[in-house]
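Support request from a user on the community tier.

User writes: "When I paste my structure tokens into the form, the page sometimes reloads and wipes my input. The last time it worked, I copied everything first. Here is what I submitted, just in case something in the input itself triggers the reload:"
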């Protein structure tokens, strides 16, 4: 099989190698899938550079989610069979033609879901659902502020926010990306490059602030968000795509009774896999009813991974960039 590998951590342009590798055999509780599509996530860049929370042992094939068809099942597998179309997540392995997945973190998908939609569906939709429903407990008629609204998790957070009955305010850094936010259902959009999002959120909410703030950007964005969050608001820490880990003003947390809530979705695969599977069933149903519509920036050949990662690193992408072997 063809696969991208790296033998050392570093800039993706320098360390990635396109190689022929033997196809792996599944162990107990594992399945092997023939990949149909895979989505790039921002943490893939961090993983290649050795900056992610988890550092896989070298050498390895990066990529954390894929869609494919089960072609071999290991012993002890009870849920999946050869021929099933599935999506799955692992720390590594997706930027290849073939991938091993734990059956426990693999999920059947609806017949109506295209390969391209499925390739980038799992991580972003699960992240936003867990954040908004399980962690922040977003309620109808509350105000949800989504930072990085045109990104992979941002577009899913906007759509799920509307499904949950919230008023959604989205921020982005260009007019093109603001239009993507509108298409996803955002009620209000703010260009944070040309506007003061803190003051604009206060104006929209008549001084009250947002009940829930969804922040995958970090840095100054999160620090400023404490100035436009409502009393008893919930501030969701999703990630640090801006590159800086922020410091939260504890005095504002105290005075406004704010809850600062972290969400690392991957840990649920270990600590509560049943809830992940239950959530995927709900997300599949929303997709089948047309309520969730994945936003795809481009579909490119897997062989173009380094150039595709450049596009992601340069913040050109909205939604998800999908690769096909």
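"...and here is what came back when it finally went through:"
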């Amino acid at each position: 099989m063809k696969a991208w590998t790296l033998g050392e951590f570093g800039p993706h342009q320098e360390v990635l190698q396109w190689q022929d590798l033997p196809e792996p055999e599944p162990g107990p509780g594992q399945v092997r899938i023939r990949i149909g599509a895979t989505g790039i996530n921002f943490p893939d860049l961090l993983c290649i550079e050795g900056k992610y929370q988890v550092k896989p042992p070298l050498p390895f094939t990066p990529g954390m989610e894929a869609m494919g068809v089960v072609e071999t099942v290991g012993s002890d597998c009870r849920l999946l069979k050869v021929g099933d179309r599935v999506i799955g997540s692992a720390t590594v392995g997706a930027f290849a033609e073939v991938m091993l997945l734990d059956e426990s973190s693999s999920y059947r998908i609806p017949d109506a879901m295209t390969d391209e939609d499925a390739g980038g569906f799992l991580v972003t939709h699960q992240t936003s659902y867990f954040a908004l429903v399980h962690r922040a407990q977003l309620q109808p008629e509350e105000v949800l502020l989504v930072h990085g609204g045109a990104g992979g998790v941002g577009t899913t957070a906007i759509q799920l926010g509307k499904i949950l009955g919230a008023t959604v305010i989205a921020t982005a850094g260009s007019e093109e990306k603001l239009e993507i936010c509108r298409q996803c259902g955002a009620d209000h959009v703010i260009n944070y490059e040309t506007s003061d999002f803190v003051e604009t959120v206060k104006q929209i909410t008549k001084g009250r602030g947002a009940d829930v703030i969804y922040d995958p950007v970090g840095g100054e964005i999160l620090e400023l968000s404490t100035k436009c969050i409502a009393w008893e608001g919930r501030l969701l820490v999703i990630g640090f795509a801006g590159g800086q880990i922020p410091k939260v003003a504890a005095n504002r947390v105290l005075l406004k009774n704010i809850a600062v809530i972290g969400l690392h979705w991957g840990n649920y695969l270990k600590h509560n896999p049943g809830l992940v599977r239950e959530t995927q069933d709900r997300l599949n149903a929303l997709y089948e009813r047309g309520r969730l519509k994945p936003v795809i920036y481009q579909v490119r050949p897997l062989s173009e991974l380094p150039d595709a990662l450049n596009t992601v690193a340069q913040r050109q992408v909205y939604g998800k960039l999908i690769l096909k072997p």
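Agent notes: The reload is a front-end session timeout and is unrelated to the input. The longest strand covers residues 30-39. The mean pLDDT is 96. Escalated to web team.
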